Amino acid sequence: MSLYSPQSKVAAYRSVNAHGIVASADPHGLVLTLFDAVIGRLTAARACIEQGQTAGKAGLLHSSITLLGELRGSLDMQKGGALAQNLSELYEYMVRRLLHANLNGDKGAIGEVLGLLGEIREAWAAIGPQVRGQGSRATPPG
């Protein structure tokens, strides 16, 4: 692909746009962005399993596991206490389920993780106005 092709220009725009979102986001918003990224990749990985696209599935699940590691690493274990510890263990469980899904082509395991992430994301989004209003750094769940 040439640097002057339309595809490279679109890719460059997406990259700049993604970096702009990250640079301007608050900590709470960044966590929501991570949740959305994992959920999007898991949805695509499940579709890859349905279509028999093994390489696509593996790449998307690998990326999802990496992002779950980012969510887990962003937990403030000191301030978050038992909640942060429980979320850390839940993220680790999700990673194990995704490894299982990758090895066995298990859409059910992906669905299970999607359900868990959806619940955490929903709770995280609900506290957004409260956290932003305080101007403090977001702690758990991500």
Number of domains as seen in the coordinates: 1
- What is the percent of helical residues? over 70%
Identify low-pLDDT runs: none
CATH topology grouping: Four Helix Bundle (Hemerythrin (Met), subunit A)
Total strands: the figure is 0
Rg result: 17 Å
Which architecture name does CATH use? Up-down Bundle
Order of helices and strands: HHHHHH
Strand content: under 5%
Note the overall shape: elongated
Q: Please identify the top-level CATH class.
A: Mainly Alpha
Main sheet characteristics: none
SSE class: mainly alpha
End-to-end distance, in Å? 37 Å
CATH homolog superfamily: Flagellar protein FliS
What do the pLDDT scores average to? 84
The number of helical runs is 6
Describe the structure.
The chain has helices spanning 6-24, 27-51, 54-73, 77-104, 107-126, 128-134. It is mostly helical. The chain has one domain (27-134): Flagellar protein FliS (Four Helix Bundle (Hemerythrin (Met), subunit A)), CATH 1.20.120. The N and C termini lie far apart (37 Å). The model has no long low-confidence stretch (mean pLDDT 84).
Fold blueprint:
Blueprint: H1 6-24, H2 27-51, H3 54-73, H4 77-104, H5 107-126, H6 128-134
Helix pairs in contact: 2-3, 2-5, 3-4, 4-5
Task: Give a quick summary of the entry.
The protein has 142 residues and is an all-alpha fold. The protein has 6 helices and no strands.
Keywords:
single chain; 6 helices; 142 residues; mainly alpha; Four Helix Bundle (Hemerythrin (Met), subunit A)
